TrEMBL record:
Pfam families: Hydrolase. InterPro entries: B-phosphoglucomutase_hydrolase, Beta-PGM-like, HAD-like_sf, HAD-SF_hydro_IA, HAD_sf, PGP-like_dom2. Its EC number is 5.4.2.6. One of its GO terms (molecular function) is metal ion binding. This is Beta-phosphoglucomutase. Its cofactor is Mg(2+). Keywords: Carbohydrate metabolism, Isomerase, Magnesium, Metal-binding, Phosphoprotein. SUPFAM superfamilies: HAD-like (SSF56784). It catalyses: beta-D-glucose 1-phosphate = beta-D-glucose 6-phosphate. Belongs to the HAD-like hydrolase superfamily. CbbY/CbbZ/Gph/YieH family. The keyword Isomerase applies.
Length: 242
């Protein structure tokens, strides 16, 4: 029997990118293009490019955008000024690089659209029919736009994204704030909720929030990373939870 149904869980909280929508690769590619361009300017042809398998997974994935910029720069011992939230994309500040990444991501999203993982859609329908409350969380400020593009917004009982996080001053992953906000919005205690994440920072956040079950989704063979981060269960597709 599914670990979700074989318990008292009342809510499933799902990360968006990489769990619900096939946008994680768009994010990763946008981060790589932005940082590789920046690094080449800094170091010339000898620059060490951003590795999606290593750098992105360890320092960026799952974190709020500007935290991701800071984290990667710190890993390379690069110090830049913070800048201002209205810095032009590409300006060599934390905000400027973050805005450049977002511009690249939105360009890709407009071209390719937000595709939903079929296994996730199947399970969302089953959980909805079973009476479970559903929440979508994301560090992205584009979450609502992406959910609308995917035609899934009405399926969720709560949405916590980068916009709400800023309004309520919620800390980004690996802090558990956005997951706890989602469960609070639904009136469900953390031990009665399931967290489903594909990022190390997200799994760590779920464990720190004392959620009843933290499931890691390893669509690209990240089983070891997610297990090391504390995932209770690691799967490749959500339909494995049937």
């Amino acid at each position: 029997m599914s670990p979700i149904h074989n318990h008292h869980f009342r809510t499933v909280i799902l990360d968006m990118d990489g769990v619900i929508t096939q946008t994680a690769s768009l994010h990763a590619e946008a981060w790589k293009e932005m940082f590789d361009t920046f690094l080449e300017k800094q170091d010339g042809e000898a620059y060490e490019s951003l590795s999606i398998e290593q750098d992105y997974k360890l320092y960026i994935d799952g974190k709020p955008r500007f935290d991701g910029v800071r984290s990667f720069l710190e890993s390379r011992h690069i110090v830049l000024p913070e800048g201002q939230p209205d810095d032009a994309p590409g300006k060599e500040t934390v905000y400027g690089l973050g805005m450049q990444k977002n511009e690249l991501f939105l360009d890709s999203l407009d071209k390719e659209g937000a595709q939903v993982y079929p296994d996730t859609l199947e399970m969302l329908k089953k959980w909805k029919e079973a009476g479970l409350k559903l929440a979508v969380i994301s560090s992205s400020r584009n979450c609502r736009r992406i959910m609308e593009s995917a035609g899934l917004l009405d399926m969720f009982d709560a949405l916590v994204d980068g916009v709400l996080s800023e309004e309520k001053q919620l800390k980004g992953k690996p802090a558990p704030d956005i997951f706890l906000e989602a469960s609070n919005m639904l009136g469900v205690d953390a031990p009665d909720a399931v967290v489903i994440e594909d990022a190390v920072a997200g799994v760590e956040a779920g464990k720190k929030g004392n959620f009843g079950l933290v499931i890691g989704v390893a669509r690209k063979n990240e089983e070891k990373l997610l297990t090391a981060a504390g995932a209770d269960v690691v799967i490749k597709k959500l339909t494995e939870l049937e």
